[in-house]
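Weekend entry, working from home. Most of the wet-lab plans are on hold until the incubator is repaired, so I used the time to fold the two sequences that have been sitting in the queue since the last round of cloning. Logging both here for the record. First:
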Amino acid sequence: MPNPRSAALTAVFLVMTMISPLCVAEGRADTLDALRREASKARAELEKATQKMEDRKKDLAASQVKLRGTLADLAGAEAELNRIREPLARLANSSYQQSGAAGSMAIFGGGDPSEALRSTADVTLLAQSQQALVDRADELQDRRKRLASTAQDLQSRNAVEQTRLQQDVDGLKNKSAELTQQLNKMLEKLAAGSLRRLQFGCDKDLAADAKKFPNGLIPAKYLCVLPQKGFKLRADAALAFYKLNEAYKRRFGRQMCVRDAYRNLSEQHQIYAQRPGFAAVPGTSNHGKGQATDLCGGVQNSGSIQFNWMEANAGKYGWVHPAWAYSNPFEPWHWEFGTDE
């Protein structure tokens, strides 16, 4: 029959928009698996939204740089044309003030017709010679106005979009934090042991991503911590190790003793320098793939009770003592997960 306490706890999660209905009758393990999937989904959505916001920031920055350059060019052109307009204005003004003439309209007045015509011709010649520049100035001014309006609209739109994206990201962060808090409370109420906690915190989907990175260069976020403090493995290896460790604990009354697990490239070089010819060449060790451990606590002694138990039981959980470790070199402490070389 369903556990009433589990049913009550599940009901709490039904009100959270990011959590699908859970069937308590399937048992606690199924409930935790479902919750883990929801947590992974929230993480993926958060990463996607964050990347989308970062992409938009880059696009906006590029657009603003281009816009500033365009406006700077237009401002320079306008300044140059303003310098041209000033001498034109002075010449035109002086022609109107010539003695005996009444400016370009003198042909309609009572002044000397010859002087009036000459003044008018001077002004007309000046106007014709600079007309192209004047037209260009007007064109650039109109264009600047259009760009300024477009820029304002673009900046306004981008500001709104960026705010919306930030709100989405903040919302996802808050939802993720809320989900984490709820899950932690549920785990405590379910009295989940350390194995369940470790399993919940280790997403097996990370294993595929970890395999994409070179040996010894796997980012920490793609590795899972072991019960033994300070050691990590690839997600699939870690999940299998948790179960192996629990079985070992039931048999011997204590957790497995781990001396080494994942080794980054720097650590591989350090060990190779200490044991040339015995340690794997840096960049080729299975430790660098996050799928190997060096054990202690008796396992390191071939023929010991602990070693014999490992030989008889480790394979049930995907862990093996590779053939080469029996003789070349002889390393009874070295155990690997999986069969990939």
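Second, folded right after the first finished:
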Amino acid sequence: MELRHLRYFVATAQAEHFTRAAQQLGIAQPPLSQQIRELEKEIGAPLFDRVGRGVVLNSVGKVFLERASDILSRVDDALHTAQRAARGEAGVLRVGFTESASFNDLVTHTLSLYQHRHPEVEVSLEESNSESLIACLGDKTIDAVFVRPPFSVASGIHFVKLAEESLVVALPDKHPLATQASLHLQDLHAERFIIYARKSGYGLSADIVSACRQHGFSPSIGQRAPQLSSAVNLVAAGMGIAVVPASMRCMQPAGVTYRPLDSSWPKAVLGLATRRDETSSVVSNLLQLVSEGSDGRAGALDSPPH
């Protein structure tokens, strides 16, 4: 029994006439009649009673029609679901993001817009640090990650830069430097820094230390925080100062004030990393959306700078 047998049977049942059913199916009447006879032979019982020039379902045919219609409906549903998946309109998108990325409006806006455009795609979110997320991307347990370079990556990673944020200094609100409108790196030479340091040695904190040295001093490291929000909380506790991306200013614990850092470098880069050989349409749609928002503002790199 093949699907065409079921389609021929349902069409005949609805038309109650072999010739009309054949015309609707776009085939000749004799082959249709032959297919119905073969179906009845396989079932072992007639499905129609002949009435004049037409046919009507008998009791066996009525039972079979219900099941055949259900099967065809399921087949059509499976087809349409597969076609939606091929277009990236259905399926699962596994997205990773760093904690600091979640403070950036670009990330939240991108995810919100993606869900609006593709409501039938399940978006699964996971938060971790950049290096762990890149590792997850490499072993295919995650599909796309919002991360901050630099990091050590394999050649199979594609990175699209979304934003380049200025840095701000998080200070205890009673700190003498809090009275200034903006700060220079040299203003921080006597301060205790709270940094977020990656195991690899790459990252924003390493860039900040390097920038300080280029300005004539080695920063005093007072604390190492597990993540940027922890660094800001340690500032609130009076443990030192922290240099963080400007988007972190939306984090407003009591006792902390932010001042712009008047420096052209370093900057906090934020972007989207995917596998270069990715073929999933749900990921392609995310990249397309990111491309729409980043035209003229950012570029694509095959691997971020170290």
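Plan for Monday: verify the second prediction. The first helix runs from residue 3 to 15.
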